[in-house]
Design a protein that fits this description.
disordered C terminus, 255 residues, globular, 11 strands, alpha/beta, nine-stranded mixed sheet
């Protein structure tokens, strides 16, 4: 489908393209195009061939545009997507950036809290159309956001009361990482950037065995919910084979 719309995926690291968003877009007939502005990719101007935008998580603070000038280009693209009414998904850092664009607070937790691994989120009143009930999802953050003016809050958790919101009907901010497959989650468990439960700054983080037990217990439900959400935001295009079955080929083994 050479005339299929492009979905531009802005990443803040060089992880493999094995996440659920990339898998869904590929199967649904979109043309996913990965960009790495943090590593010098020039976003340029948003042309008419762009049909959707996804801004992933990362280590960069949304307020640090002086320290990280590439963030200005990312903000510019997010603003353009909002102006055009394109489907937009901000994940973790991307959610904080969307909150900032819309006038909301974003920074490190005011209480010094963090979340890593599977944590339960719950719908707030009026958010059940997106999140029907409680769900354990992957988290990896110590920054957060407040739901910005004019946006509709969707989900909350015990540690971070603002977990998701939607603005303009199709611009979504998710603090959590439902896109991460079991393979990706194991990669995170091995990563030096998250030292684990022995680090005093990561209090409350479970050990590896408990993390893997949570993965086995909760990933299937997370995957099923997120696949349904993605199909609603980025629907399968005419002529594409509809995605079917769990999008977990990159990590079917969960223990």
């Amino acid at each position: 489908m050479t005339d299929a719309p492009r979905a531009v995926l802005i990443r803040h690291g060089h992880d493999p393209d094995d996440d659920r968003v990339f898998a869904h877009l590929s199967a649904a007939g979109w043309r996913p195009e990965v960009r790495h502005p943090f590593d010098g990719d020039d976003l340029g101007e948003m042309d008419g061939g762009v049909g959707a935008l996804v801004v992933y998580g990362g280590k960069f603070c949304a307020a640090d545009t002086e320290l990280h000038p590439f963030l200005r280009d990312e903000f510019r693209w997010m603003e353009a997507a909002l102006a055009r009414g394109l489907p937009l998904l901000g994940i973790c850092q991307g959610s904080q950036m969307l909150a900032k664009i819309l006038g909301g607070w974003t920074d490190a937790s005011r209480e010094g809290l963090c979340e890593f691994g599977f944590h339960e989120i719950r719908p707030v009143a009026g958010g059940e159309d997106v999140l029907p009930g409680p769900l354990h999802v992957v988290q990896a953050h110590f920054h957060g956001f407040d739901t910005p003016p004019g946006a509709r809050a969707l989900a909350t958790s015990d540690r971070f009361p603002h977990q998701a919101f939607v603005a303009q009907d199709n611009a979504y901010a998710f603090q959590f990482h439902a896109e991460v497959t079991p393979t990706g989650f194991r990669r995170w468990l091995d990563a030096e950037w998250w030292p684990g439960p022995d680090d005093a700054t990561r209090r409350g983080v479970k050990d590896r065995a408990a993390q893997l037990a949570d993965l086995a217990a909760h990933d299937a439900a997370q995957d099923a919910w997120f696949r349904g959400f993605l199909e609603g935001l980025f629907p399968t295009l005419e002529g594409a084979a509809a995605p079917s079955g769990p999008s977990r080929s990159a990590g079917a083994r969960v223990a």
